[in-house]
Design brief:
Elements: E1 2-9, H1 12-28, E2 29-39, E3 44-54, H2 79-99, H3 103-106, H4 109-118, H5 123-126, H6 134-150
Antiparallel strand pairs: 1-3, 2-3
Length: 151
């Protein structure tokens, strides 16, 4: 097991860059455990990731359709999908408060939009959505599916 520490600055000039760096790392590694702490004096999140070996990411290779991930980032949502998205955002906000994490650690807006558009019915179908890996599905899959069933 390896460890990597990230500093996520909350000011406008660092937040987006730091978040993209973290997201890129999360997409290319198998995360085992996450620990966070807010550093009040300097106003940033310290994120400690425990991970296993690096996933092999091939550059400039067209992915086989079986491994392609669904993403609704360029698609407009209809009114029903917008209701689902709002419910998912509310759940994410509550979950982030409960776990003392920034909301984007739970799921990004693009990931929630993709869930609202794709409407998976089983945990296995969450794997088809870009950004949903083993860790996210194990931790949040059941709750996401319950939200989708309730709307």
């Amino acid at each position: 097991m390896k460890i990597k520490v990230f500093k996520i600055g909350l000011d406008d000039r660092h937040l987006e860059k730091d978040q993209k760096t973290l997201e890129a790392f999360l997409e290319s590694h198998d995360i085992i455990k996450v620990e966070t702490a807010f550093v009040q004096d300097e106003k940033y999140w310290s994120v400690v990731l425990y991970f296993d070996e690096l996933k092999i990411v091939q550059q400039n290779v067209v992915k086989d359709s079986k491994t392609a991930k669904y993403s609704a980032e360029d698609e407009a949502l209809n009114s029903d999908e917008l209701k689902i998205l709002e419910a998912l955002k509310y759940w994410r906000s509550e979950k982030a408060k409960e776990q003392n994490l920034p909301s984007y650690f739970i799921a990004s807006n693009k990931e929630l939009m993709s869930v609202a558009k794709y409407k998976p019915a089983k945990k296995e179908e969450l794997r088809d959505i870009k950004g949903f890996g083993k860790h996210k599905i194990e931790n949040y899959g059941e709750e996401i599916l319950e939200i989708l069933e309730s709307i």
